[in-house]
Design a protein that fits this description.
three-stranded antiparallel sheet, four-stranded antiparallel sheet, alpha+beta
């Protein structure tokens, strides 16, 4: 059995660190640490991942001070990419109660799905609901104390370089096992898309990239995680969901008639993908058309 290599060593007065040491120090996985080095030429020169400084017994070592500078830049750049909350979030009374839809809007999320995903898969990351309020459709939906949302916004971070691409804890007090808002939002969107379209099929990541923007690789990761955490709906469940949407769309058409954007309104009210409501509205209009 070969002896374990030291994570750090001193050469000519410089402290060097191995890739295993980098992974341990940063909380990143070994593939992530390897990828940082592989893509160093794409990084700003002043913050670039250090090149190999020494090789000892076939183990590569890197300048620790340069790595710390690179890692600080990386964390800050990722944090800067987190969508900032809308100003009104911090302007109200901390004891105000916001519905889940209002909370998502205040935090600048595309929909409430990101919050639902946090609550389900990352306990402790997002504030717990303080109760429920009546939603747009009349059914109770989760509600949150504004002060809790303000505290969450102050501490959230864009660092997602931990093991398996997840936050490893540290800056901002974010617990292990969480993901950034952008990643969680992609996973939630992919989950909804898979459920509403009957499950996984080849090319779904490319389809999501075209619909929502972003790289196909990012959507492939989101789809993979969505498939791991999602049980496909049965044909009976899918049919029931479709019938419910069509009935709701039919009632709205009978009440106020058709207008452009109706599907988007229904999707927002029911916190579901717009594409499924477009289908429901089309079906309902066909049913109302004179025979």
């Amino acid at each position: 059995m070969s002896p374990q290599r030291p994570l750090t060593l001193v050469v000519d007065g410089r402290t060097l660190i191995s890739r295993a040491g980098i992974a341990e120090r940063s909380g990143a996985s070994m593939p992530t640490a390897k990828n940082w080095f592989a893509k160093r030429l794409e990084q700003p020169e002043e913050f670039r991942h250090p090149d190999k400084a020494a090789t000892v017994d076939r183990t590569d070592y890197y300048d620790l001070e340069q790595f710390d500078r690179f890692h600080a830049w990386l964390k800050q750049s990722k944090q800067d990419r987190v969508k900032t909350a809308r100003p009104e979030l911090h302007q109200g009374d901390p004891d105000d109660v916001l519905s889940i839809n209002e909370a998502a809007h205040a935090l600048n999320y595309a929909s409430a799905s990101a919050i639902r995903k946090y609550l389900k898969d990352n306990p402790g990351y997002f504030p717990e609901p303080c109760g429920t309020v009546e939603g747009p459709s009349g059914r109770p939906i989760p509600a949150f104390r504004r002060g809790d949302l303000q505290d969450f916004d102050r501490r959230r971070t864009g660092d997602n370089t931990g093991v398996s691409g997840r936050i490893s804890g540290g800056p901002g007090g974010v617990p292990a096992g969480t993901v950034t808002p952008e990643v969680a939002q992609r996973i939630a969107t992919a989950t909804e898309h898979l459920q509403s379209t009957g499950g996984y099929r080849h090319g779904v990541a490319a389809e999501l990239a075209q619909l929502h923007g972003g790289s196909e690789a990012a959507w492939q990761r989101a789809v993979r995680q969505a498939r791991q955490g999602t049980t496909a709906l049965s044909p009976e469940e899918l049919a029931s969901a479709r019938d419910r949407r069509v009935a709701t769309a039919l009632a709205r058409l009978q009440e106020s008639g058709y207008h452009r954007g109706l599907a988007s309104e229904l999707a927002t009210e029911h916190d579901e993908p717009a594409r499924t409501w477009q289908t429901a509205v089309t079906t309902a209009r066909q049913q109302l058309a004179p025979q």
